[in-house]
Structures are given as C-alpha cells and as structure tokens.
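pls design
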C-alpha cells in the first residue's frame, strides 16, 4: 500500500555556531558572503584594531622598561654579593639588593603577561570561523559598530553536511506505523526511511532516517519530538528551513480487508480464518491504518489466507 503520513518539519544544521566578537569596534571588512562554505580558522571579519595595536605597543614598552630595571637590579645584587663577601657591607644591604632583584623579576613577569594579554586582545580583531560549515545571514556590514553584547551575532556557521530535521508525532501514530513494537523506542527502530518534502513541493533526493526521540512528551500536544538525519552533500538544505516529513504508513505486504470482516474483543481486532479443512479459526490481526470501510492489515494475515467477510455474528 502507498499510504503515507506527513508532518511539519524544521531543518537545522547538526551544529549551528554563533560567531560573536570578543572586542568592541567598527567592522573594517567582511571577507565572506552568505551561503559560503568556510573552514575552521578561516578569516570572516576584521574589526578596527588601532586602539588594540596601541595597547600592544604600550605593553611592549612596559616590558622593555621592566627588563632594563631587572638588569640594573641584577647588577646591583651581584655587586653587593662581592662586597658582602669582602665584608664591605652587611647582611641588611645584601638582603635589600636581593629583594629588589626578586621584585624586578616579578615586575618583568607581570609586564610580559600584560603584553601577552594585549596581543591576544589584538588577535580578536581578526574574527575567524570556529568551525567548518556554511555562513548564515550577515546582519552587520563594514563600518558597523559591534561588541560582545551586540544583540545579533556577526553570523552563524552551520555544519550542514548532514542536517537534523525536527518533527512531532503522537505515541499512537508511532505505534500504529509499526507492527510488533510494544514500546515507542522499539517502534522507532522499526520506522522505515523517511522522505522530506521541501517548501516548493519537490521531494528531496536523499532518504532520511529517524535517529532520536526526546524522552519528554509535550504535555499540551501529547506528542513526541523526533529527529531525522538527512545527508546534504549538495548543500541544498539550509539550516532554519522548513518542510514536511513523509513517512510511509505500511509495508508492501499490507493487506486490505473490509471492516465488516473484523470484530473487536478487549481492544484487540480479530478475523475468522478458514483453513483447508474448512475449519474456522479466530486470528488476531494488527491494523496499520483505517480508511472508509476498510482496514489495512500490517500483520496476522497472509495473501493466501481465506477469511469470513460476513456471517461473523453466526460464528460468534
């Protein structure tokens, strides 16, 4: 049977990474365009770096000063050691020189740390891609003032080699689509490959597989949130897009029977099957779908079975 069900769906990259500036400043240049594929570490934007370059120069000057003071303190300490050994000066003068030397060493280390910090801040003026993927929208152009607290990210880089497609199904729907599953998680494993219909009505040319289900049921809808993975080698699917997930309802061996051939007992459905000796047996069946006047049977009957279509009341 070719029955199918459709569910509204949302498309997302497996990884959507927001790119935000770590420093405040004016964008001097945008190096990428929307939809461009980029690699990890690729330059996306530059931010005006004049202020941060000046801070590096100032920090470098402080390192030079601290190094010179350290050299002086070392010479003084070494000279005082000789004078102490000759008993020209006492322990106090030697200790003072030693303390001054230690203080100068600490001052140089502090200045070098400040220089490293200034250089790191300067490096943030070059905004690079944190991951490989496809560039999303670019809300800021060259000349725009941006900062870490800007409301929108500079852009989003999405890994869309495979996409996640989110949709919802009721528990009943999931169990109805599978024949023998006693639980939703078991039913998910039995779900066939799914298709994706794009917004323009065309069918996406790669099949998808349902891979995940949220453990929490949406209380307002009673639905499970499901995720299907689709390969996206041609980069046709964009993160943030929409579509419809299409799930085939029955397998090719489904059998269509009239509803009057079926009777219910304690929420289970049965038919009367006639064997080759014309003896009637009760047989439980599983229903895949219900249409006007007919049931589509997913298990319990084979094509060669003979079953009663009327006179059921007499058998009962």
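designed seq:
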């Amino acid at each position: 049977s070719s029955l199918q069900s459709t569910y509204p769906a949302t498309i997302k990259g497996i990884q959507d990474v927001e790119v935000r500036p770590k420093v405040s400043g004016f964008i001097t240049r945008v190096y990428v365009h929307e939809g461009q594929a980029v690699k990890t570490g690729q330059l996306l934007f530059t931010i005006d770096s004049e202020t941060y370059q000046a801070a590096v120069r100032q920090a470098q000057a402080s390192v030079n000063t601290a190094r010179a003071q350290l050299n002086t303190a070392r010479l003084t300490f070494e000279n005082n050691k000789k004078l102490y050994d000759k008993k020209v000066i006492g322990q106090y003068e030697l200790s003072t020189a030693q303390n001054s030397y230690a203080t100068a060493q600490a001052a140089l280390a502090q200045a070098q740390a400040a220089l490293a910090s200034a250089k790191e801040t300067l490096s943030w003026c070059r905004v690079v891609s944190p991951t490989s993927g496809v560039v999303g929208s670019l809300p800021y152009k060259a000349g725009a003032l941006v900062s870490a607290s800007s409301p929108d990210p500079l852009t989003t880089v999405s890994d869309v080699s495979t996409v996640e497609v989110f949709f919802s199904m009721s528990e009943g729907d999931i169990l109805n689509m599978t024949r023998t599953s006693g639980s939703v998680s078991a039913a998910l494993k039995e779900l066939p490959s799914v298709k994706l219909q794009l917004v323009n009505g065309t069918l996406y040319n790669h099949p998808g597989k349902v891979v995940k289900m949220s453990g929490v049921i949406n209380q307002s809808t009673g639905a499970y949130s499901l995720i299907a993975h689709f390969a996206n080698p041609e980069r046709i699917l964009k993160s943030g897009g929409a579509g419809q997930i299409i799930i085939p309802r029955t397998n090719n061996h489904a059998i269509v029977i009239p509803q009057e051939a079926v009777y219910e007992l304690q929420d289970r459905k049965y038919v009367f099957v006639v064997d080759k000796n014309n003896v009637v047996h009760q047989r439980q069946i599983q229903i895949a779908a219900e249409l006007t006047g007919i049931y589509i049977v997913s298990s319990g009957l084979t094509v060669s079975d003979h079953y009663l279509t009327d006179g059921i009341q007499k058998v009962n």
